[in-house]
Amino acid sequence: MKKHILFDNDGVLVDTEQWYFKANQEILKKELNLTLELEVYLKIMARGGTAWEIAFKQGIPTHIVDACRFKRDELYQHYLQTEEIAIPDVKDILNDLSKDYSMGIVTTSRRVDFHLIHANRGIVDFMDFTLCVEEYTHAKPHPEPYLKGLEKLQAKKEETFVVEDSQRGLSAAYDAGIDCVIVHNSFTATHDFSKAQYFIQSLHELKTLF
Description:
This protein has eight helices and six strands, in the order βαααααβαβαβαββ. By secondary structure, it is of the alpha/beta class. α8 (167-176) links the parallel β4 (160-164) and β5.
């Protein structure tokens, strides 16, 4: 019987992934005259890499890339505060799920971005904890983030499931030995989800899945 849920954040609870891609794409073009194609970015994302790989391949030094990262972060935060990133009915769904499950968020987002995303959104009110990228050593697709999530919940693997939308996140859950539910996201639709145990079109289906 399932008692616990570990949620990914971006693309699952909030619609932010397209804006992170756009911020990377725009800064690479503006500052370095490099074109980041969506197909390339999705392949990099699937294995847990970064968009800056295309800069390093061109021999651009680290200090220039770091300066561009800072500008990317500023632009991304601008999008977080000005664009619509809500996924419909998330709060109602979480309120319903909270009656039967303990829950946490395990994300590769930076804590500063996470705070911007969730300011006055009410989503974290239903969570026992949140884990951001600064709070573990190895990011997804490494299993550490989800193993740490289990520790936070004091949960057994067989009593827990992960909700993800990316191949990187699925790999992390799979290698951690936790069942994974993939929720449809058109942004990551080309990823390989063959290792997932369950597939849903929206979070509405979680209540009746187990």
